[in-house]
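Appendix C: a fully annotated inverse folding record. The material below is reproduced so that readers can follow the format used throughout the book. The structure is listed first as tokens, followed by the designed sequence.
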């Protein structure tokens, strides 16, 4: 499938990554595709808020009822421009700040040289 857009991710460790994207996939699914381990404690049901990211540029689908309700119930915990990655789909090129990632299981990564 030909990419429709580009998602630029600013990761908690300071790295920046640009990946191809599609308007039919939410941000969490895009992250999974590129092995970016975003937290997702409720499995993408707009209940836990652990997947949230901050939008730095670009446009996403508007928040639906479940997302708006969670943000209202926990308004103090959501900063400006934060969205649930499991709910928001990109409408064009977007830049997002990833707030947290699950640390890698060190049994699955190669030893560092030295
Ligand atoms: S994974 Fe729980 S709100 Fe997105």
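Designed amino acids, in order:
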């Amino acid at each position: 499938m030909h990419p429709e857009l580009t998602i630029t991710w600013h990761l908690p460790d300071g790295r920046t990554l640009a990946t191809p994207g599609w308007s039919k996939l939410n941000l969490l699914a895009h992250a999974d595709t590129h092995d970016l381990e975003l937290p997702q404690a409720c499995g993408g049901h707009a209940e836990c808020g652990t997947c949230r990211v901050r939008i730095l540029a670009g446009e996403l689908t508007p928040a639906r009822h479940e997302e708006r309700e969670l943000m209202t119930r926990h308004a103090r915990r959501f900063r400006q421009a934060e969205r649930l990655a499991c709910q928001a789909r990109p409408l064009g090129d977007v830049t997002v700040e990833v707030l947290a990632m699950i640390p890698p299981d060190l049994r699955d990564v190669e030893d560092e040289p030295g």
